[in-house]
Amino acid sequence: MVTYSGKAKDVIVLNNEEVQINFRDSISAFDGDKKEELAEKGMTNCLTSVKLFEILNEYGFNTHFISKINDTQLLCKKVTILPVEVVCRNISVGSFCRRYSFEEGIKFEQPIIEFFVKDDEYHDPLITETVAVQMKLITENEAILMEAITRAVNEVLIKIFDLISLQLVDFKLEFGRTTEGQLFLADEISADTMRLWERKTGEKKDKDRYRQNLGDVIVHYKDILERLNSILKLPDYKPLSTVQVIIKLRKSVLDPAGEVTFRSLSRKGFKRIESVRLGKSAEIAFNAVPSSELQSEIEEISEKILSNPLIEDFELKIQHHSEKSEKSTLMKNR
Ligand code: UDP
Fold first, then answer.
1. CA angle 170, 130, 193 (to 5 degrees)
2. Atom of ligand 1 nearest to the CA of 93
3. Atom 3 in ligand 1: which residue has the minimum CA distance?
4. How many CA atoms within 13 Å lie on the side-chain side of 122?
5. Which of 141, 155, 323, 324 has its CA 20 to 30 A from that of 16?
C-alpha cells in the first residue's frame, strides 16, 4: 500500500520503525509544471542516493538509509519529514541569482545556507531560521543542528566529488525527526537535488540538463553514479565541533564579586552600567559531526558536570569547524 506518493517517489510505511521508498522514473521541475518519464531515472537516483547515504553514514552522520531492497527500492528509518528544507550554496546560480539579481558562477567565500518552507502552492518560499522557529515548523535546536549538519555534509561532499573531478555547486537536504526527537537526514541525495559541474569544462551534469532542455539527462546522471562507484577509498575528513559553555549564576543568586565590580565601575564614572554579573566559560572540542546525540551529550556535560544546577545557569555556543570553515551559532539557554 502506497502511503504517500510524491513527485518522483512513493513511500510505504512498513511498521513503526521502517518505511520503504520506491524511486519512480518521473522527473519534474518548476513545481511540477514540467514533467516527464525518463527510463532508468528511478534506478539511477536510487543507487546514487544509496552511495551518498552510505558515505555519509560512514562519516558518522545520522541518515534514514538502512539498506537497499533492490535497484529502485530502499528500506529507510521512519521519520516525520520536517516542513523546512535546507539549501547549501558554494557557487551562485539558480534561484539565488534570480532573487538577488546576482551574477551566476561566483564562488562564495563561505558556503551560504538557506532555509525554505516546503510548500508547492507558495513555491517553497525562503524563510529565516527565526521565523521557522516562531511558526513552530522546527525547534530552535533543530534549526541550529540542521545548519551545522548541512555545513559538515557540504565539506564531505566537496571532498567526495573533488575525487571524481566534479564541482559541487549547491544542494538541498531534507531532515526527518524520530518519535524520540532525533534528527536524521532524509529523502534523497542525487543529481536531482544538487548541482554538479564537470571541474575542467563547467559542463552541467545535474537536473539543470532537464530544466534547461540540454538533453542526455540520464547519460550524465549515470556517469555521476559510475564515478561515485569507482571511489575505492574515502578521503580523510576530520570533523571538529567545538562548544563554548558559558556558566552564569542564576538571576536569583547573589553575586558579590559582580556587585564589587559594578561599584568599582560606577566609581570610575561608567554611569550607564545597570549591573554586573560574573561567570565562567569552558570550551570543549569533539571529534564528531554534529548530531542530536552530540547535542544531548553537550547538554548533559554542561548540566551535570560543568555547572551547579542549584545556583548556576548555562548557555551553549556550538561551533562547527573543519580544516577550512568556522561558524558559530548560539545554541541554548537552560
Ligand atoms: N533543490 C531541490 N529541490 C527543490 C529546490 C531546490 O532539490 O525543491 C536543489 C536544486 O536542485 C539545487 C539547489 O537545491 O541543487 C538550489 O536550488 P535553487 O534554490 O537554486 O532553485 P532552482 O534554481 O532549482 O529553482
1. 20
2. 20
3. 193
4. 9
5. 141
The residue contributing the CA closest to ligand 1 atom 13 is 171
Q: What is the pLDDT of residues 257-274, one digit of tens each?
A: 999 999 999 999 999 999
Q: 126 CA distance to ligand 1 centroid (A)?
A: 12
Ligand 1 centroid–CA 87 distance in Å is 7
User: For residue 89, which atom of ligand 1 is closest to its CA?
Assistant: 16
List, for residues 64-123, the tens digit of each pLDDT value: 999 999 999 999 999 999 999 999 999 999 999 999 999 999 999 999 999 999 998 899
Cell readout for 95 is 534561484
Domains parsed from the chain with CATH numbers: 4-229 (3.30.470.20), 241-332 (3.30.1280.10)
Query: Which of 182, 170, 194 shows the shortest CA–CA distance to 89?
Result: 170
pTM: 0.92
Buried b (16+ CB within 10 A) or exposed e, 227-241: bbeeeeeeeebebbb
Which protein residue's CA is at the shortest distance from atom 25 of ligand 1? 95
Q: What is the structure's pLDDT at 326?
A: 47
User: For all residues of the chain together, what is the average pLDDT?
Assistant: 93
**How remote is the CA of residue 91 from the centroid of ligand 1, in Å?**
13
Q: Which of 303, 304, 300, 298 is nearest to 318 (CA)?
A: 298
Q: What is the pLDDT of residue 324?
A: 52
Listed residue (67, 48, 325) closest to 160, CA to CA: 48
Looking at ligand 1, which residue's alpha carbon is closest to its atom 15?
194
Atom 23 of ligand 1: nearest residue by CA position: 94
pLDDT number for residue 151 = 94
Atom of ligand 1 at shortest range from CA of 170: 15
Q: Which of ligand 1's atoms lies nearest the C-alpha of 124?
A: 8
What is the reported pLDDT for 9? 98
